[in-house]
Amino acid sequence: MHATLSSRGESATYAVIGAGLTGASAAWRLAQSGADVIVLERDVPASHLGSSHGSARIFRYGYLDPFYAGLVVQARRSWDELEETSGRRLITPSGSLDFGAVRDPRRLADVLESVGVDHELLSPDEAAARWPQLTFDTEVLWHPGAGVIDSESSVLAMLDLARAAGADVRTGWEVASVRHGFTGYVLTSSTGRTVHAEQVIVAAGGWLPALLRDLDLPGGFADAMPQFEVRQENAFHFPYRDVEDHGQPLPGEATSWPTFIYKGEDIQTYSLPGGRDADWRGQKIAEYNGGRRIASAAEQDGVIDPDNRERVRSFVARFAPGLKTDSYAETTCLFTNVPRDDMIIDRAAGVTVVSPCSGQGAKFAPLLGELVLDLVTGTALASERFRAVGQRFAGV
To answer: By C-alpha distance, which of 144, 108, 131, 105 is closest to 319?
Structure first.
């Protein structure tokens, strides 16, 4: 079914705000269930102004928390369904390395053992013999089931499936406010257009903090929203030193380098093959939460922080001898945090807020829509881990 016209304007059972990974997933699962869905995106799907653009995100099982490690196992099944249904390869195998004293590889190994994920715990020398392009200062966890997510293609695949099931996807439709109507809610755009919906799913990513001011949320639910921290992160692509062809992997092949996460006392980084974003010529590396804080996505300016660039270059010189230390491409991206690092999936009075914060959203993308569907249809309650409970950062 499609959004319909009435005397009050366009209407739908569900209006989804945002066409990134989360919004696309919610739209797919809701439309798949037979619901009447309209998606409202301020720009274009997987916009570079949001958090779901490009072709390089990490799919990994490495969590110190068994709850989230087990959730990745569920998400992998959803990814398999999405790839099979869409006919697209969306995760390229890479395997992943975890090291650094704060990362705690030994404890990670215990967690992966508890959820049945294949892994190896290696000494620094064993890891160096296998991956001479990297330097290791602690034990190393290797889990081969990790991969590189093509984020943009995943968004487009889920939206294609949503449209095929009847969803209406609107682009260039910036939601300015969500207010109670006679029945349900009235969503008004920045240009004065309106849509009426019985329920609203807000999947606005880094735009959420600003939009919250104009969301007609029940008082208690509004007060329970966590404090959101939006950062403009910096990501750098460093070229491989060797002359081996590091081009696009063919279907069924793995990437030439693994993804890796390093968490030490002085710096925390994540890295993955850059994929289409950087012509498959190098490794993407960024400092975890190394970017400047901004009030919302509206304040991003795309300017690289030179101090952050130097910190990442120093990391490469110390830990990645297989890379040249001058980046050949660099960009900024949005990163939204909440104090407890848990995803927010909660609802009240017909409004569902979905914010897979703290760098977690991509790997769970096709599962998020299932969780939203269960919540809005009453099939299941939100996990207590996903409830909005008024989290605040220390000192605030």
So the answer is: 131
